[in-house]
Structure formats: C-alpha cells, structure tokens
Amino acid sequence: MSNAVVVKTEELPKSFLEVHPHNLYLYCKAYAAGLRANSAQAKTRSQVSGGGKKPFAQKGGGRARQGSIRAPHYTGGGVAFGPQNNRNYDLKVNKKQKRLALMHAIAEKAANGKIFVVDTIAVESGKTKDAAAFVNALAQRDVLVIKELIDDKTFFAFRNLANSYLIEPNELNAYLAAAYSAIVIEKAVWENLTKES
C-alpha cells in the first residue's frame, strides 16, 4: 500500500461545497429509520387470553362494575395504546438528495483533513496485523476503507479490525461517510467519485 495523500477542500469540485447540510441530515435520518427492527408489539385487551366472565355481579356488591379482568387497569390485562409492529418507519429520500448528502459528507471530511487517497489498497499477506498497521499509521479513531474491487486476502486482513470497515464503491453512502472518523480511498475510486457529471 502506497503513501496516503490528504485531500484538501480546494481540490474538491465546486459543486461539493455548495450542498446544504440538511440533505445529509435527512439521509441519515432515513437510513437509521430503515434499520429499525419494528418488533415491539403489545397485546390489546382483545388479544390477551382469559377474562371471558364478569369478575363479579354487576350490582349489589357496592363496587364499581367490571366486565373483564383483562381490561388495561388489571394486572395481566391488555395494554391501552401500546406499540404495534405494523408501523412503517421508512422515509423517502430522492436519488438526487442521496447524492447531495454524500457530497456534503465528503466535503465535511475534506474540510477536516480526514480523507486519504492512496494508489492501491491491498494486503498481500492476508494478515490482520498488516492491515492494522496500515490503519494505525493514519492515527484516526476509525476508518472507512474504500477499495475498487475487494480481493480475498485484503478482505480477510480487514474483517476482524474493530476500527475499520472495508467496502466497495457501490456500498458507499452518506451515512457511512459521515459516521466514520476518516476515509481511505483508492485513487481510481476517488477520481470517479469526484468527477463532474
């Protein structure tokens, strides 16, 4: 792996610097919403078993009338207005907005000197310690590593590193770009990413 070159803001296309940050917020919000398991579910009084008979007679006891021991105010009763797993959390984000969000995330990283461009990213030995040495040399909290085509040796070298995540260009999105402290990217991928459309 060759020496890393830090990308400066002035090297970015002008369009990257004109994006409103709200685009990134909306994309990250939609991305996080899409990760929700949507598994929280509580039973209503009609779904809880039991309670078919009145607990006691309607009149004559001096107590308030009760129709079922599965009403919400009873222990073991149903839940009033509890969560249901039929809710849709998906939020719509347009293709153009996704692109703008990624552009802003990259511009933010460049402004802080957190994008490193290298000619190639490859760990020929396939050893994790070699990948760790490469990541540690950057002196960053965690690193998003973008390689044009991931080979087996490089994949095995990076897969057990807690402070790095190896992806191909088609997996790159604004959320990942914003979430990681720094980005290491191959030169060919970087040129393709920043070329003016």
Notes on the protein architecture:
This protein is α/β, with parallel strands linked by helices and 197 residues long. The protein has two domains: 5-36 and 90-194, Ribosomal protein L4/L1 (Ribosomal Protein L4, Chain: A); 42-88, no CATH class. Helix content is 30%, strand content 10%. The protein has a five-stranded mixed beta sheet with strand order 1-2-5-3-4. Strand 3, helix 4 (152-158) and strand 4 form a beta-alpha-beta unit.
- The CATH architecture classification of the largest domain is 3-Layer(aba) Sandwich
What is the number of strand segments? Answer: 5
Under the CATH scheme, which class of the largest domain? Answer: Alpha Beta
For this structure, the CATH topology of the largest domain is Ribosomal Protein L4, Chain: A
- Give the low-pLDDT segments: none
Tell me the distance between the termini.
30 Å
Order of helical and strand elements:
EHHEHEHEHEH
Q: Let me know the largest β-sheet.
A: 5 strands, mixed
What is the averaged pLDDT score?
A: 92
The helix count comes to 6
Question: How many structurally independent domains?
Answer: 2
Structural class: alpha/beta
